[in-house]
Amino acid sequence: MVAAGADLADETGFDRLTMGLLAERLGVRTPSLYKHVGGQEDLNRRIAALALGEAADAVGVAVQGRAGRDALAAAARAFRAFVVEHPGRYAATIGMEPSGPDDPLAAGSARLLEAFTAVLRGYEIAESDVDHALRLLRSLFHGFATLQAAGGFQWKADVDESFEWLIAFADRGLRAG
Prior knowledge:
By secondary structure, this protein is mostly helical. The chain has helices at about 1-10, 20-25, 30-35, 40-65, 70-85, 85-95, 105-120, 130-150, 160-175.
């Protein structure tokens, strides 16, 4: 049911996802959903946890066996592809805070951060600067991918070329330290 909700969020937009719409999609009455989730907030949290796990898997697989710019490019492309292909479920992750260390949101978030932290190991980033570098990467890749997913790039220049330019820019910045 959570996967169906995530698919529906991708199709309609996370902000439009409701228990009633999901029940309609599944061909059940809305009260039947409460046997599986505690309500809209619980559904949203489960979709966010699913999305974080999927994004972590995509980025983690992409960076395996790579280092430096190759790892950065692989992580960036995998993350962008996930966000563009799954805009609704990714939107569920924005601003969703784990309720504690055992929350599946915390586990998914930690796995995604670890994948990007692995990318940073290929650069000479001081341990005290890792959090700053992670925020930089998240800002760059999240911003680009969410703008693209929302149709925010209407210019003539090829979007893929712009993204490769962004990767090269981030690589130069990380190398400069």
